[in-house]
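Hi P.,

Sorry for the delay on this. The queue was packed all week, but I finally got your sequence through. Input first:
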Amino acid sequence: MATQGKVKELTGELMKNLSTLTKPRIDLIGLFILAIVQVTSVNLAKIALAMDTKK
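Then the structure:
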């Protein structure tokens, strides 16, 4: 899935720059940013639905 690839890219960038965060937190940040871009809204209910957490 294309979303997973983007999350992995964001994860790598965040891990290089924010070494104090754990991987699950970094994954959440990546999913959250991508969901905001997808729904073009900051409505948390819409963002939660857009976050593809199935692996």
